[in-house]
Amino acid sequence: MSGAYEDPAVRPVGIDELLERVRAGYERIGPQQAAAAAAGGALLVDIRYAALRERDGLIPGALVIERNELEWRLDPLGSHRAPEAVSHDLPVVILCNEGYASSLAVESLRRLGLRRATDLIGGFQAWRAAGLPVSLPVSRRAE
Predict the structure, then answer these.
(1) For residue 93, what are the β-bridge partners?
(2) Contacts of 38 (CB under 8 A, 6+ apart)
């Protein structure tokens, strides 16, 4: 029986190398560009998990789809797609908390044919640091 990694095409890579490879395949955007894209009709998608949204708030107008449902909800051909997932040509900006998981999510969406998918450099934290709009979750508004 041969070793699991004898084929150089199957050699393991670290996450830093994987992120570098993935990000080399598309142009990432900053907070101001993401806001402008959303204002121009791009779909801004927040993939952070509930605890982070509860802690830090939400971006008004962003579609919340947790990471484990992303492909199912954004595939225009999928039976479980979100109403907003109307076309493979739809511009989509994915954001996570700090801009790492979103890059891997974009790679997956691009494999589904969403060729205009990109992500927000620095994620939600960069959006907030840029002074762009954030609303508190309903449960924290009374504080």
Answers:
(1) 44, 118
(2) 44, 61, 62, 93
Contact of 102 with 94, CB cutoff 8 Å: yes
Provide the edge-to-edge strand list for the sheet that holds 43-46: 63-64, 43-46, 92-95, 117-119
- pLDDT for the residue 10: 76
pTM: predicted TM-score of the whole model, two decimal places: 0.88
Q: What's the pLDDT at 140?
A: 58
DSSP assignment string, 74-128: H-TT-TT--TT---TT--EEEE-SSSSHHHHHHHHHHHTT-TTEEEBTTHHHHHH
Residue 66's alpha-carbon distances to 1, 2, 37, 62, in angstroms, are: 40, 39, 21, 12
Confidence label for 1 from pLDDT (cuts 50, 70 and 90): very low
Using the Cα atoms of residue 83, residue 81, residue 108 and residue 48 in order, give the sign of their dihedral.
positive
Q: How far apart are CA 55 and CA 49, in angstroms?
A: 10
pLDDT tens per residue across span 75-133: 999 999 999 999 999 999 999 999 999 999 999 999 999 999 999 999 999 999 999 99
